[in-house]
Amino acid sequence: MEWFFLFIAGLFEAAWAIGLKYTEGFTRLYPSILTVVCMFLSFYFLSQSLKTLPIGTGYAIWTGIGIIGTTILGVLLFNEPMDFARAFCIILIFSGIIGLKIISP
């Protein structure tokens, strides 16, 4: 269950990172509320996963999922560039996540 919680935490991390763009510096009420809720849920699910997962593994995977999700959403929502070098680096992060999952107890 801890891996599921960690995955959900990572998704909420990507959501609040994207939400920050829509808050316009927390000057827009509804995007700000939604972003703060996503922050809370991200930290909540991360804390649940860390009851049994090692902190270094959990944190690395949480941020990795957030990085990958935020990058993909940035490309889709904000027309950010996705060239070969950027895609390759994202693949490296994904490979690290898979590696940590495989070697974790």
TrEMBL record:
GO terms for molecular function: transmembrane transporter activity. It is found in: Cell membrane. It comes from the Archaea. It is a multi-pass membrane protein. GO terms for cellular component: plasma membrane. Pfam families: Multi_Drug_Res. Keywords: Cell membrane, Membrane, Transmembrane, Transmembrane helix, Transport. The chain crosses the membrane at residues 27-47, 59-78, 84-103. Coiled coil: none annotated. This is Quaternary ammonium compound-resistance protein SugE. It comes from Methanosarcina barkeri MS.
